[in-house]
Amino acid sequence: MSSTQTVREPLVRIVKREGATLPKKILVRAVAILLALVVDAMFIYFVTGLNPLAVYGVMWGGTFANPTRFSWMLRDLVTLLCVGIGLAPAFKMRFWNCGGEGQILIGGLATALVMVYLGSSLPAPLLFLCMAGASLAAGALWGVIPAWFKSRWNTNETLFTLMMNYVATSIVACMTNIMRGSASSLGTLNKATKAGWFPVFMGQRYNINIIVVVVLTFAMYAYLKYSKQGYEISVVGESENTARYAGINVRRVMVRTMLISGAICGLCGFLIVAGRDQTISTTSAGGRGFTAIIVAWLAKFNTFTMALIAFLLVFLERGASEIASAYSLNQYAADIITGVILFFILGSEFFINYRVVPRGMHKEER
Amino acid sequence: MHSSLIAWILRAVPFGTIIMYGALGEILTEKSGNLNLGVPGIMYLGGFAGFASAYYYETLSASPNAFVCIVVALVCAVLASMAGGLIYSFLTITLRANQNVTGLALTTFGMGVANFFGVFILNGSSYAAAPLANKAFAAQMPVLSKLGDAGKILFSYGFLAYAALLLAVVLHWFFTRTRVGLNLRAVGENPATADAAGINVTLYKYAATCVGAAICGLGGLYYVLDYNQGIWATTDQIEALGWLAVALVIFTTWKPLNAIWGAYLFGMLYWLYQFLPSLLGITVSSAMTDLIQMLPYVVTIGVLIVVSLRKKKENQPPAHLGLAYFREER
Lengths: 366, 330
Known about the structure:
CATH architecture of chain B: Orthogonal Bundle
Low-confidence stretches of chain A: none
CATH class of chain B: Mainly Alpha
Largest interface: A-B, 52 and 52 residues
Number of helices of chain B: 14
Number of strands of chain A: 2
Helix content of chain A: over 70%
Largest sheet of chain B: 2 strands, antiparallel
Radius of gyration of chain B: 20 Å
Distance between the termini of chain B: 62 Å
Radius of gyration of chain A: 23 Å
Oligomer: heterodimer
Order of helices and strands of chain B: HHHHEHHHHHHEHHHH
Distance between the termini of chain A: 35 Å
Shape of chain A: globular
Structural class of chain B: mainly alpha
Strand content of chain A: under 5%
Number of domains of chain B: 1
Mean pLDDT of chain A: 85
Order of helices and strands of chain A: EHHHHHHHHHHHHHE
Low-confidence stretches of chain B: none
């Protein structure tokens, strides 16, 4: 380095911002979503030549056109939210549970097995109890295996849980293969007896799903925010060393939290099989295990914010399938629109956590 | 039994090649400290861009030329996957968004883009084909591939299968024998120290992530134009392959040379369900076949556990993997 350079101030400087105010946070996110919608509108216009406003209008109808649509939206919303609630404690502990997919599947499978093999011999209340218990246990098992290894030997949980998804998929494929016997597909379980089907409750088919998830939303919020265990989770998430120093048994917290996380994901499998599809297949989870990670993360594990984000995503998904049928496009438009919105929301976090100071504009603040 | 063993290998090697590209790209990315879970999405982008460009070149050009077709497909696949890598880099490096969540969003996005535009090419039918591109990419070595079984096993693949081997060796040399490679590893291990030593952390991270994405994209390209016989259909298959590639990175303990045999082993395990019955001369029920398909994943879990048990320093992931770097943060 022979030449001497005068050090110039960079064009912009980035400064950490502590504690942005709530209105500011909301404003930043609203701007992000608005910008994402503009980008999506441009995409719609240039690719298809359709009027973006009309397309967004059709999307709106996907959720709000009539009560049936709205109840479908609620059904999808609570399914996604349920997985999100399951993942929230794990992620708050900075335990990357990418295995929601597998935990849902195995919980759903346990439910389906109880429905098929005990459906005719047990009275309804006991049957539902067995189904719920089986799904909770199966999901918990699927969650606790990676957690145990992580707590003992620090085995990478992101990949462990990811692989467990495929193990679950194989087992579900195998079991449905056995259950269907010589038929070409499994079809609806207990079609004749409707044993193990959630009954129509207060005039709505999906009301029981909705009630269960609403209860879970409140319970998980309270658990994370007000219970001692919830506090332990957040300390472990912030710093394992601090937790150890404070006398928290990190291993135990890890295993216990994943037990809960897996169990709730398993319960979601129960809701899907008993209250929604009345069947099980390898695609029953439908990518929700992954989408729910985004839901939980963006909401900073606040279950009520999660409901809002889950609503946004389900609204987009239903809207996109509405567009697909109205304009003979395809439903993958939903993935693109969702992807763009997620990119913008993720990017907007930067403007909440940091300030950008242009050259020559910075004043000594401290 | 002999012939089914050869058929098995002939299936396993191309399969291994797909995930080898994915794993090599992801190793390069992870060496810079970026854990990109968008690999499936990037493979979709690369595979689709490669197919679409080859398809349009074939159908629109009056006299399509095989060599031009290869170049067009390669360039488009690389550009599209780099664009995916760039989105990821901008969000995680410049805007410091969470890497795992951004990666998952990129997977959703890439899958959506590929399948959305794919439907326009499909235009109502269940699949679309690019036969010329397939012929160009799957062309076997003229004389050598005819030399009996050995020739078949060694020389009957498209050129990208050999390019993958070369790439693994080059990456190994790059990481262990070059200054730039050393710097890159320093960035992944401890960006603050690298920064203090005068290494441009941001530049290294951007470059490694984008080039890594381009390599992953080649895996998608190889899948569509060679492995899948130049046929595009709306599919979830690439996503599963992408995750398998991410798993392979762990399996190799971040060493490109291990990716070679690791990838082929995964290929053998993946296709085991089809060849096991004829190899052992037994019949396996279709339910058992479903169960055998979990093998590659179970093996990966086993490796994960063993690696974490042995705790050897050289087998660990880059120390700063998955974390954003902000200079002013202490």
